[in-house]
Design a protein that fits this description.
Distance between the termini: 54 Å
Largest sheet: 8 strands, mixed
CATH topology of the largest domain: Rossmann fold
Strand order of the largest sheet: 9-10-12-11-13-14-15-16
Number of domains: 2
Strand content: 15-25%
Helix content: 25-40%
Shape: elongated
CATH superfamily of the largest domain: Alpha/Beta hydrolase fold, catalytic domain
Length: 429
C-alpha cells in the first residue's frame, strides 16, 4: 500500500487518475498496459494512461449476487473469460441452491458479453502475457471485484501486476495484499464507508463515455497533446489536436469536463472538419472542487482566460486568420466576452447551453456571427439567450441544440453540436 497526503475529496475521477499516475510511474518496466474496471474505473484509468502514455483497455467483472432476506448480497464475481471467483464464506452463509447459483452465473455472463461489445466495439482485448499490468478502479470497498479482476490477470501470466486505486477501505487493502505484486492507493481513510463519498463530482459515466475513452487510447481518436495554458497565475489544462490538412483553428471552451464523451466528441468533430482544436477547461480542478460544482467566476475573469487560450492557439498553429470559439456549459458566457475583447482575432462564435446573458456589458461589443444552441425545453434559457442576442452587434442565430430531445447518447449529441459549429465556422471564418 502506498498512501500519500492528498486533497480530499477528489475533484473528480480525472484528478484521481492524475494523482495515481505519478505513484505508478516508477513501478513499470516491461511493456505496461492499463486495464480499468468500468464504469468509473475507466475514467480514472484513462487519465492515468494519458499521463503515462500507456495503452488502455477495459477489464469487465460482474458481481454475482443472490436475492435473499437481506437483499442482494454478492457471493462472487464473473470475469470476461467466463470464469467465476466465489466468496466461499458468503456462499456457506447463504446456503444457496445450485440451480439458483447457476441461473445467476448465466445471467451475469450474458450481461458481461453485452458490455464487452458495447465497450470495445468488436476490438480484441489487450494482450497481457509478459507485460506489466496496472488494474485500475475508482475505489475499493470490499475487494471482491478487484480480487476477481486480479486473479483473471494473474491467470494470463503478466510480468508484474499492480492494483492502483485512489481510495479504499483499509480492510479491503489488507485482504488484497496477496493478489497483486504492488498495491498503490492514495488514501485509505479510517472513516471509509462508500467510494462516492470521496469524490466531489461522482456522476456515473455512461457506456458511451466508457467506449469513447477506450477508443481514444486505442487510436480511434486523433492524437491528443495535453497542454497547459497560463492565464495570470492560473494553469489551465487542455487537449490540442492538429489535423493533417489545417483549414482553420478553433477553441472549445468548457468550464470543466473536457474528458466527458460529449465534449470530446464535439472537439473531435471540429478536428475532423479540418480545424486545429484546443479543448480547454477554463476552471481548474481545485476551483471546481472548492466550489463543489460551478465556481463563481465572473465573465471578466473567464473571458480573460479564454483570450489567453486564443492567443496560445494562434501562436501554436502559426495562423494569421481569425479563430472560431465554441463555448459550452459553464464557459458559454466567456465566449462573447473574449470575442468583444478580440474583434480582429475571434471571427465566429458557437455556443452550446449555458447562460450567454451573463456576459452582460460585454455583449454590445460582440460583432461577429454567433450561433446559440439552447437545450430543448429550457424556455427560460431561451428567453435569456434572446435578450442577449438583441444586445449583440452582429448577426445571431438561435437554434434548439441538436439531440436535445434526449434520444441520443452523449457522444452522438456532441458530434451533432460539433458539426453545427464546424458548419458555422466554415460559413463565417
Amino acid at each position: 500500500m502506498s498512501p500519500v497526503p492528498v486533497s480530499l475529496p477528489f475533484a473528480d475521477r480525472s484528478a484521481a487518475g492524475r494523482g495515481l499516475a505519478e505513484r505508478v510511474r516508477p513501478l513499470l518496466r516491461t511493456d505496461p498496459v492499463v486495464l480499468a474496471l468500468p464504469p468509473g474505473g475507466v475514467a480514472v484509468g484513462a487519465e492515468l494512461a494519458r499521463a503515462l502514455d500507456l495503452p488502455l483497455d477495459v477489464l469487465v467483472v460482474r458481481r454475482l449476487t443472490l436475492q435473499g432476506a437481506a437483499g442482494r448480497a454478492p457471493v462472487g464475481a464473473v470475469t470476461e473469460d467466463g470464469g467465476v471467483v466465489f466468496d466461499d464464506s458468503e456462499l456457506a452463509r447463504r446456503r444457496a441452491a445450485r440451480e439458483e447459483l447457476s441461473r445467476a452465473v448465466r445471467s451475469e455472463r450474458q450481461e458481461l458479453d453485452r458490455m464487452l461489445k458495447a465497450y470495445r466495439g468488436g476490438r480484441p482485448g489487450a494482450p497481457v502475457a509478459g507485460r506489466d499490468v496496472v488494474v485500475v478502479d475508482e475505489g475499493v470497498t470490499t475487494g471482491a471485484t478487484a480480487r476477481a479482476a486480479l486473479r483473471w490477470v494473474r491467470r494470463h501470466r503478466p510480468a508484474r501486476l499492480v492494483l492502483a486505486v485512489p481510495v479504499a477501505a483499509q480492510s479491503a487493502v489488507a485482504a488484497l495484499r496477496g493478489e497483486a505484486d504492488e498495491i498503490v492507493v492514495l488514501t485509505a481513510p479510517d472513516n471509509f464507508h462508500a467510494v462516492g463519498e470521496w469524490y466531489r463530482d461522482y456522476e456515473r459515466p455512461t457506456e458511451a463515455d466508457v467506449a469513447a475513452l477506450l477508443e481514444e487510447r486505442a487510436g480511434g481518436r486523433p492524437p491528443v497533446r495535453p497542454v497547459r495554458i497560463t492565464a495570470g497565475e492560473i494553469g489551465l489544462d487542455g487537449d490540442f489536436t492538429v489535423p493533417e490538412t489545417v483549414r482553420g483553428a478553433a477553441v472549445v471552451a468548457l468550464g470543466h469536463g473536457r474528458a466527458h464523451a460529449q465534449n470530446r466528441a464535439a472537439a473531435d468533430t471540429l478536428h475532423e472538419a479540418g480545424y486545429a482544436t484546443l479543448a480547454l477547461d477554463l476552471c481548474t480542478p481545485q476551483e471546481w472542487e472548492a466550489a463543489q460544482g460551478v465556481p463563481d467566476i465572473g465573465p471578466d475573469e473567464l473571458g480573460e482566460r479564454l483570450v489567453r487560450a486564443v492567443e496560445w492557439l494562434r501562436s501554436a498553429t502559426g495562423t494569421t486568420g481569425a479563430v472560431g470559439v465554441f463555448g459550452a456549459g459553464a464557459a458559454a458566457h466567456a465566449a462573447p466576452a473574449a470575442a468583444a475583447r478580440m474583434p480582429r482575432t475571434v471571427g465566429a462564435l458557437a455556443v452550446l447551453g449555458g447562460r450567454i446573458d451573463l456576459a452582460g456589458e460585454e455583449l454590445p461589443g460582440v460583432r461577429v456571427p454567433v450561433l446559440v444552441m439552447v437545450p430543448g425545453g429550457e424556455s427560460f434559457v431561451w428567453e435569456l439567450s434572446e435578450w442577449a442576442a438583441g444586445r449583440m452587434g452582429g448577426p445571431v442565430e438561435l437554434r434548439t441544440a441538436p439531440g436535445a430531445e434526449g434520444l441520443l447518447g452523449g457522444t452522438a449529441e456532441g458530434r451533432l453540436a460539433g458539426e453545427a459549429a464546424a458548419d458555422w465556422f466554415d460559413r463565417h471564418l
